[in-house]
Backbone:
């Protein structure tokens, strides 16, 4: 077994200084060493997208990346979205309002993919969502409500912004 | 049975509303507790070595290198595992033994050959790679028709033939109907095997206690509270020393009812080392070896019609490729005969089925469970009859629909349909589809050399299954008695008035917590968000067949309503005693117990609950303190099959119905089928929660799009090797394949169930494949194409066009 490598990685705002096997996948580091089970493994072949997380703000299949590649990186998982008091992130609120999930297994990947999209395109339309999440598989919902959820999340976030700026004014 | 008597006009506050889903917050935040999230102290991780070959003798297995690897705790061959665990339970008497890890011979590609437990999954997989297996290849049986030949190699040497089951049954005067028919339409059709493929694979954590001789198993199986004794049998544990704990399940669609092989492998590893072991299938384990494969049928079918288009009789001759084992027997055909005649008044039926063994993974259950190809073949025959007889396909259906006043309606096999208004569903579907507009568009595009097609299918969704279907076709003697197939709910109201429901079924991706919350809220008049719902493990005594056969909302409604009413009635008696009134004069309204007609005198839930818990004054001599009730709701309407099978009894009598109208465009050059629009009218009785039912129906339709256009297990014709072991080869629909689906509901409540609910979990997939086939036909009518095989992949469509044009 090759020597372990040292990585410094920030996950959901917490800095970690870790020793890991060179072959440890990011998904396994998150689920195992860091005890963050929200990132799900559906295929471990990069096809289904359930394990999508944000690496330096870019949606990334965590089953296709070695943790050792990410020294100095910042990772966000589904655990970063909701507040500690249980307040759901607007994207999560939109998914529950629009019934954009059933079994929930693909959902963290959808949410993180949506997160990246909404940071780039604040109010996406159907085509934008298909472009961004077309590679994420869901076997339950038939996608219609996922598309609606992501579009609704954009509107919710825009409304929140307006409210906040209103308060400031 | 009992007919539930309640006025349809009953005012309901929560049943029928799109109540927010209770399950969502934990699912949205990654805290739902799937099997992969279970971590026990000292837990090891399993991996499985699988056969690359379809059929081979295992000459030798050398595990020494694997055992020498640091971190490896145990390596089990099939022979070693057989010392610890027993073969899979079978659902009928055919003697086909299946072990979770093969002994001496592998019979399908992906069959387990050895298993490893190690300190981490990486090491376990390294160890699998170091196991040396020597195989002697045997001829692979891939084609079920060839496998039926007496000279064919046998999949199991203990059997005389690969035809493991054959039965032909007539109901009504089939020969007479064929003889007097004006037209007999014939169709050969092929429905290929597809898999459920939930995004979460199957898995288990088993923990063997050698001192107590007891086993604890966490898993994503559904049957932990239905057949826990069957798992105890495999694991060689006393039934009362096995504890099965449910996990949140990342989708199933029928595939995780049992997962006996996964539980057996995990249990054997734990027994071998006395430590907790987790084994999670990887994707290829799941595709290749999970029992999540649906039907694989060749049909030779005939529909006999009178001159005016009246449907007289139906003949279905079926060869069904079951793969290498027969664990779940002919349940898929028991299921199919719940609705073989669809929504039509067809008077006679011949059902002739041969179940054939080949070198493929065995069939399990997948959404539709046998009725899916049944709908496909029937609607294909109806469309063909319309074409051959020159009767409009809509008109032909109208003429033959069972009429609203004919319900409850007994079909030839003995099953009963509870209620429906099929013509109203059809009319509304035609209306929302705007058929005239699409016909104009079709004309316009044809002038441009483009091929638009309008599909139509009117199909049944039998719901609320009765487990009798698994075995009532078997044997010549009287079948087992009909099965109650129950579901339980426990409701307790604590001393402060908090309501908790505990249910026996796991969370499978549907919404049991929400449904239970709605029903409790309805009965007590409280807010559903205040109700807490928990899941029972197998030590609770709850009996639960869980989700499957579109039953769980029907059954949970009955179980929850029964338990809620028992507790509420006791609370009424306690409140009446406290208020010195007759219980007859007390009612519960919005969580308050008050005098009927005199709302001034009242007690809150909490006041009544505290009194019942701590200050029970002996309201009645028979009543002790506390507020808890378990209600086990048996299947609401079933009758026993007769010994000669001339009447299989009512076993699947809550029958939903839908009409689907998909619009497709087909490119005959490339074979590409594109869905342009999709219209559905669905009738599943009283809609418990419109948003959730819509989710089920649309999700099912998209699986049906997969069935129609993409999904298929492929095996090498000569070597039998699996050519679709990952999602790169086995294609699932993505966002790109899905059109906007327009859905409406009509409601004909069931007279047999609480609130009149019927099932809705499978309907989308039960109807979409045949509707899309009909649309492709309609598109390619100018080219003379007739679709009789799914999925309609680009290659197959190009082939069908070539055949129709005589170019091949």
Residues:
């Amino acid at each position: 077994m090759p020597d372990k490598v040292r990585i410094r990685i920030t996950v959901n705002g917490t800095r970690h200084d870790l020793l890991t096997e060179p072959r440890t996948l990011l998904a396994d580091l998150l689920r195992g060493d860091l005890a963050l089970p929200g990132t799900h493994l559906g295929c471990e072949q990069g096809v289904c997208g359930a394990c999508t997380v944000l690496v330096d703000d870019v949606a990334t299949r965590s089953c296709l990346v070695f943790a050792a590649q990410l020294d100095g990186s910042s990772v966000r998982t589904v655990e970063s979205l909701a507040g500690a008091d249980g307040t759901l992130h607007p994207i999560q609120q939109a998914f529950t309002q629009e019934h954009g999930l059933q079994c929930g297994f693909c959902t963290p990947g959808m949410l993180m993919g949506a997160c990246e999209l909404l940071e780039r395109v604040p109010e996406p339309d159907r085509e934008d969502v298909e472009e961004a999440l077309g590679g994420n598989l869901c076997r339950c919902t038939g996608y219609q409500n996922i598309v609606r959820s992501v579009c609704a999340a954009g509107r919710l976030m825009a409304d929140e912004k307006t409210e906040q700026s209103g308060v400031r004014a | 049975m009992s007919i539930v008597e309640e006025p349809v006009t009953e005012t309901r506050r929560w049943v029928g509303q799109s109540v927010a889903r209770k399950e969502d917050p934990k699912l949205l935040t990654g805290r739902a507790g799937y099997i992969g999230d279970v971590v026990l102290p000292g837990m090891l991780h399993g991996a499985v070595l699988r056969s690359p070959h379809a059929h081979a003798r295992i000459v030798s297995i050398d595990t020494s290198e694997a055992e020498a690897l640091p971190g490896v705790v145990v390596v089990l061959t099939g022979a070693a595992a057989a010392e610890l665990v027993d073969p899979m339970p079978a659902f009928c008497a055919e003697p086909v033994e299946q072990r979770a890890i093969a002994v001496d011979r592998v019979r399908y590609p992906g069959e387990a050959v050895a298993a490893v437990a190690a300190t981490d999954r990486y090491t376990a997989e390294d160890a699998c790679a170091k196991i040396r297996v020597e195989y002697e290849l045997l001829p692979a049986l891939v084609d079920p028709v060839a496998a039926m030949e007496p000279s064919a190699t046998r999949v199991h040497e203990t059997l005389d033939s690969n035809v493991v089951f054959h039965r032909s049954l007539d109901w009504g005067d089939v020969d007479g109907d064929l003889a007097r028919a004006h037209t007999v339409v014939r169709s050969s059709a092929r429905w290929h095997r597809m898999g459920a493929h939930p995004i979460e694979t199957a898995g288990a954590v088993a923990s063997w206690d050698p001192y107590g001789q007891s086993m604890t198993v966490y898993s994503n199986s559904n049957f932990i509270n239905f057949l826990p004794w069957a798992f105890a049998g495999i694991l060689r544990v006393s039934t009362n020393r096995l504890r099965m704990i449910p996990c949140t399940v990342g989708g199933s669609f029928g595939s995780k009812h049992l997962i006996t092989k996964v539980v057996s492998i995990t249990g054997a590893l734990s027994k071998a080392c006395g430590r907790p072991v987790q084994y999670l299938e990887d994707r290829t384990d799941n595709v290749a070896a999970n029992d999540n494969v649906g039907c694989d049928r060749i049909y030779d079918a005939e529909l006999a019609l009178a001159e005016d288009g009246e449907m007289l009789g139906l003949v279905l001759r079926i060869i069904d490729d079951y793969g290498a084992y027969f664990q779940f027997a002919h349940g898929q055909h028991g299921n199919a005969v719940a609705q073989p005649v669809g929504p039509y008044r067809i008077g006679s039926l011949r059902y002739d089925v041969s179940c054939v063994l080949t070198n493929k993974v065995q069939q399990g259950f997948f959404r539709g469970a046998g009725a899916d190809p049944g709908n496909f073949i029937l609607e294909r025959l109806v469309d063909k009859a319309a074409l051959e007889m020159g009767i409009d396909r809509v008109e032909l259906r109208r003429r033959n629909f069972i009429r609203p006043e004919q319900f409850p309606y007994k079909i030839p096999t003995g099953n009963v349909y509870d209620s429906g208004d099929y013509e109203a569903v059809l009319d509304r579907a035609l209306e929302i589809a705007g058929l005239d507009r699409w016909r104009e568009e079709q004309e316009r595009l044809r002038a441009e050399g483009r091929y638009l097609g309008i599909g139509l299918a009117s199909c049944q969704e039998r719901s609320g299954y009765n487990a009798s279907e698994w075995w009532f076709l078997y044997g010549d003697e009287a079948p087992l008695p009909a099965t109650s197939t129950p579901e339980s709910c426990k409701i307790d109201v604590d001393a402060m008035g908090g309501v908790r429901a505990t249910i026996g079924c796991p969370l499978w991706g549907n919404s049991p917590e929400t449904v239970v919350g709605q029903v409790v809220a309805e009965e007590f008049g409280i807010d559903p968000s205040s109700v807490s719902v928990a899941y029972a493990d197998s030590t609770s005594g709850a009996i639960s067949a869980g989700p499957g056969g579109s039953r769980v909302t029907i059954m949970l409604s009955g179980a929850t309503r029964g338990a809620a009413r028992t507790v509420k009635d006791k609370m009424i008696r306690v409140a009446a005693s406290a208020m010195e009134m007759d219980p007859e004069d007390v009612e519960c309204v919005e969580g308050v117990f008050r005098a009927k007609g005199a709302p001034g005198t009242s007690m809150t839930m909490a006041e009544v609950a505290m009194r019942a818990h701590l200050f029970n004054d002996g309201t009645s001599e028979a009543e002790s303190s506390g507020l808890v009730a378990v209600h086990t709701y048996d299947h609401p309407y079933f009758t026993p099959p007769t010994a000669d099978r001339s009447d299989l009894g009512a076993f699947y009598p809550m029958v939903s119905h839908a009409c689907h109208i998909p619009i497709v465009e087909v490119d005959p050059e490339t074979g590409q089928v594109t869905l342009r629009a999709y219209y559905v009218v669905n009738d599943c009785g009283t809609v418990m929660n419109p948003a959730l039912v819509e989710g089920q129906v649309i999700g099912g339709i998209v699986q049906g799009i997969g069935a129609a256009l993409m999904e298929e297990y492929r095996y090498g014709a000569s070597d039998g090797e699996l050519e679709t072991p990952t999602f790169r080869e086995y294609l699932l629909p993505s966002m790109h394949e899905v059109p906007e689906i327009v859905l409406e509901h009509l409601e004909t409540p069931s007279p047999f169930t609480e609130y009149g609910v019927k099932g809705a979990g499978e309907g989308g997939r039960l109807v979409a494949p045949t509707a899309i086939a009909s649309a492709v036909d309609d598109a390619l009518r100018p080219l003379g194409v007739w679709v009789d095989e799914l999925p309609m992949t680009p290659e197959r469509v190009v082939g069908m066009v070539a055949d129709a044009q005589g170019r091949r």
Remarks:
- Helices of chain A lie at 26-33, 90-97, 107-120, 126-133, 144-168.
